[in-house]
Every structure is written in structure tokens, then in C-alpha cells.
Amino acid sequence: MSGDARKRMRRREVDVFNYYDDMGPGKGNCTWGAGILAHRGPCTPEELGKSVSQAEVDAEFSRKVAHAERIVRINVTTQRLNQAQFDALVSLTYNAGERGASGTFDLVDSGDFKGAADNISKMIKTTVKGKKVVARGLISRRKEEAAPFREAAEAQAQTARK
């Protein structure tokens, strides 16, 4: 992942030095640090009282980014990605996980950049107490992640028209 993309993602994933429920008290998933999923479902009262250090946040962020990079490299093998596309897929994978990003990997790998951009743009919901709800913070994130694939799809369309 490029240094610039890593900085942008780090600004988006605000450091929180304790465990918290990502959609508000008693809602969403138990999270900590730089948007690091502890587990699905709200935190326990014991977890809510647990603090973490800057060093723990930094180390886990770096570990998760490296893991997301490996996942992208393993899952996208037939298409050569430019840096913006690779960065976007790492960001998506960091946030949605391998399973959440797998449909996008398949579209990218088959060369369907428009389909990949559309798929990323749709990934704005999360489950809260068994119901799918729009997570407002994901709207701008997904727009940014979809952009490199929209640009590639537009370039493909222009080439096809010539």
C-alpha cells in the first residue's frame, strides 16, 4: 500500500485507545484502536473497560494492513493493478475482510472494473441488532475505493468506442 493511501486510511480510521461499539453503545461490533474488529456484536462490559496503548494500535494497524495486502495479492492474479487500484482493494479488505471483499476480487480479476466499482459502492451497510443499516461513514469511503475502478471502466469504454 502506498504511503499516501496508508496515511489517508489512518486518518479515516481514528485511533481509539479503548474498546467500543462501532455503531454506538450496544450496537454494531466490538472494535478498538484504528477500526480494528475485536469480534462481531457489541462489546461486553469488561471489554468496554479495557484500554489499549498507542504502540498496540500502531502494531495492530500495521499487521492488519500487511494482511490485507497479502489477501489482495492472493485473490487478484490475472489483472495487473495500478497503485490506486491496489490501495483501494487493501482499504476495502482492511474494512470488509477477505470474505466481504471476495465478490469485488472476482470482478476485478475478470476485468469487470465497472462491476467492481458498482459492487464496492453498494457495500455501505452493516448489521445492527440483526438488521442491515446504512453506515454513513462508509459512503465516502466506498466512493473513494470505487473511484480507481470507475476510471478504468471509463478508459475501457473509450477504447472500445474507438
Structural summary, described in words:
- With 162 residues, the chain is α+β, with helices and mostly antiparallel strands.
- It has one domain: Lysozyme, CATH 1.10.530.40.
- Helix content is 61%, strand content 14%.
- The protein is built from 6 helices and 5 strands, in the order αβββααααββα.
- The chain has helices at residues 3-12, 45-48, 54-75, 83-109, 113-122, 136-161; strands at 16-21, 30-33, 36-39, 125-128, 131-134.
- Strands 1-2-3 form a 3-stranded antiparallel β-sheet.
- A hairpin with an 8-residue loop joins strand 1 and strand 2.
- Helix 4 (83-109) packs across helix 5 (113-122), helix 4 (83-109) crosses helix 6 (136-161) and helix 5 runs antiparallel to helix 6.
- The longest helix is centred in the middle third of the chain and has 27 residues, at 83-109.
Describe, in short, the structure shown.
The chain is α+β, with helices and mostly antiparallel strands and 162 residues long.
CATH topology (fold) name: Lysozyme
CATH class: Mainly Alpha
Structural class: alpha+beta
Number of helices: 6
The pLDDT mean sits at 94
What amount of the residues lies in strands?
5-15%
Computed CA radius of gyration, to the nearest angstrom: 17 Å
Measured between the Cα atoms of the first and last residue, the distance is 34 Å
CATH architecture level-2 label = Orthogonal Bundle
| Number of beta strands | 5
Helical proportion, percent range: 55-70%
The best one-word shape is globular
Q: H/E order of the elements?
A: HEEEHHHHEEH
Q: In what order do the strands lie side by side in the largest sheet?
A: 1-2-3
Describe the main β-sheet briefly.
3 strands, antiparallel
What number of structural domains do the residues give? Answer: 1
Uncertain segments: none
